[in-house]
Each structure stands twice: as C-alpha cells, then as structure tokens.
Amino acid sequence: MTVLDSRGPDPRNGSSLDDQETVERPVGAGAVAVEENEPGVSGSAGPEADNGSTMSPVASGVESGPRDLAAGRGPAWLDAWIEANAHRVLAWRRHIHAHPELSRAEYETTAWLTEQLTSVGLRPRTLPGGTGLLCDIGPETHQPRRTVALRADIDALPLAEETGLDFASTVGGAAHACGHDAHTTILLGAALALATAPHLPGRVRLIFQPAEETMPGGALDVLAAGGLDGVERIFGLHCDPRIPVGQVGTRAGPLTSAADLLELRLSSSGGHTSRPHLTGDLVHALGTVITGLPTLLSRRVDPRSGTVLAWGAVHAGEAPNAIPQHGFVRGTLRTRDRETWSELEPLVEELVQGLLAPLGVGYDLHHRRGVPPVVNDSHSTELLRAAVGTALGEQARTGTPQSSGGEDFGWYLEHVPGSFARLGVTSDAGEAKDLHQPSFDLDERALLVGVRTMVHAALTALDD
C-alpha cells in the first residue's frame, strides 16, 4: 500500500519572519492604491519586489465601487480608505477573476499582489515555491507585543467558467468558482487599509496562500516557510452562498471535516464470463468493495463522528463477455472528528484486505491523507464575533453549521488557535449558485464586508 501522508511539518523548521523588516505607515499612507492602468511604484520595496507581473494591467473601467453596507462604522481611517478605494477593490476582484491560475501555478497572481503591496511601502516575501506571499504590517520591532495572522487563498479551480460575466475567465479550463478571487481581494484591501492606520498595537501578518484546492495543500508550504512563527492567532474567511450578503457566520469548535482521497486498483488474470470460477472476478470484487467498505465503516466507526465514504469514479473493462484484468475505484473519505481521522487509514486497509481476501484478486490501495478538520478555538471565535459586531453591526452576526467539505486552514489550527468564518455572498435577486459550480458568482457588496471584517478581526485580537 502506498500512503501519501500530508501531515504538517513543524513550522519551527522553516525560516522565520521575525527578521523581516516591517513598516508602520502614517495616517493616509497607502490610502490611494495602484492606479488601474499603470504598474505599482515601489517606494520601499522588499527583496521580492522586482518580480514584475505579466498579468495585464487592471483596466476594468470601474468608476464606482460596491455599496458599503457598513459605511461610517469606523474607525475613521478605515472609513476614509474604503470611501477612496471601493472602486479599486471592485476592479481588483474582477481583474483576478478574469486571470485565474491553478494550484502552485499562481505566479502572475503572486507578482501582481507584490506590486500592490510594495506600492504602499510594504515588504512582501514570496514563498520558496515561487507562489504565495507573506507580508507583515506593524511596528518595526523584532518582538512586537503580539502578532495575528490573516489568511486568504489565491488559486483557482480546473473548471470552464459558465457565468457569462463581462469579466469572466480568460484562461481556458480555469475559473475562480470557489470565491478565492474575493478572498484575495478582501485580504489585499484589508492590508492596504491597515497600512493607513495611525497606530497598530501589534503586528499583522498577511498570508496569501497558494494551492488550497489540492492535496497536500499550500498551508503546508506556509508552515514550512515559518509563516506562523511568532503568530498568536489566525483568522480567515470563506465565501458561503447559503448566507445573505452583509452577514458573517461563525462557529466555535468543528467547522469543516477531514477529507482523504482513496484509490483502489485491482488486478486479475481475467477470463471469460462463462467461467468466472477459473479466475478472479475483478468486477465482482470492485462491487464488493464499493458496497461493503462503506457498510463496514458504519459498523466500526462511531456514528457521531460523521464519517462518510462516497465513491466518485469506477472503471473496469469494455467487453460484456470478458472479465477484465484491471480496474479501479476512487472516492473521498470524510470525518468531522480529529481523533477518528487519525485512526481511519489502518482501519481502511484492514477492511479492504478482509473484503478482497476470498476473491482471488490483487490490489493496491492508495490512501492519501488530505486535510484535518477546521476546529475553531472558542476564544478566537468570540473575538471574531465581536469584530463582526463592531465592524458591521449586531444584525451581521449569524451562526453556521459544520460542513463535510475540506479546508486546509485546519493545518494552521493544528499549530496556533484561530477561527475561520463564513462570508455571506448571496443577494436577494435570483437563485444562489453553489461553490465549485461553473456558474458560481457572488454579490460584490460582500467585498467591503470582508475588508471591514478582516481589519476588525486583526484589531480586536491585537487589543485582546
């Protein structure tokens, strides 16, 4: 059996960000971001700032931004930045949306983000793999009172977009159908807004993470690069089409599920379907596993763990009167419980072996461990809920159920406490499209909601 295990590395083994110079900007600095039709001008560029982007300049013709649903709620410097830059936030999202890049190929997105950050004097550092960024904002000291991190994922999905938008994907077979264009835009907006704060009571670390949509995910790259060194808490948002725009869903405890990939390949000498007793009946063996393994798991695993095995692909043979020699089945194995997740790999191997032992076929089981469940820290979630109330008003706070989806933000929470929230992106007009659908889109008013939420999450945690 081949096991591809993506258990996270010790982040202390990576390079530290404590030696990276940070810049605390005076009031007004960075209030005007990069002009849409010209590259960013680096006033204080870091070592990665000369990586020019080959993405086309932002030239969307956007003259006004989305309506700010929380205008005037402060602080004054944040209100001023949003009023001056709301149209740019909208243009950024549409620009990123039109130029999607798949996991670990986000080179142009990374270079473009570098331009925007260096244009206000920040010093981003590209991750060793060449995609994704880390960047600090705050006091110029090696040991600030505390550091909190804000994270966004920047990769797209291998889908052909079907939205019909004027700014739809210009890249064949790639689309931002999971809202990562919005996540990236929100964190960039929060970064440039925070750069105008007259004072920050600590340091904010920005994590523009690559490769969330693959296994093992880009969170492991961030950890290996020391991205959480010195970080006390971490926060993140994800678009949720089940929640109305203007609301943010929070939940203490488990929010997502662990998600593994299974691939079982079977082999047999094959033969004629009139004589199945003379060979290993491979199709029958596949059927035995397809129906038997989920059933046995339901009897060997505590049902309260929410463990679910679902098959997504199966293939064997072509001719109706020939028992094939080769076949495979692939699926996902999910559980809501962290302890159960750690026990599933040897259990699946035991059960597969028992199911196939009397059937005379060979097998090769690939169990690729994916991501742990996102388990939100209670106190961090309290801070995030308070931040939502301050940023948007009490009516913006809502709960959210645990899902069976996987999210590699869970790796960060294996190392530091934090909280991951659901950002409402659905308007009243029309039926909401789900994530990972080629037709997925969002209400762009959610962009400024997200900027305000992330800024206030950082401020609330730093003042805790």
From TrEMBL:
Its EC number is 3.5.1.-. The Mn(2+) ion enhances activity. Its cofactor is Mn(2+). One of its GO terms (molecular function) is metal ion binding. Keywords: Hydrolase, Manganese, Metal-binding. Residues 1-67 are annotated as: Disordered. Pfam families: Peptidase_M20. Mn(2+) binds at C178, H180, E213, H238, H436. InterPro entries: Amidohydrolase, Bact_exopeptidase_dim_dom, Peptidase_M20. It is an enzyme of class 3 (hydrolase). This is Amidohydrolase. It comes from Halosaccharopolyspora lacisalsi.
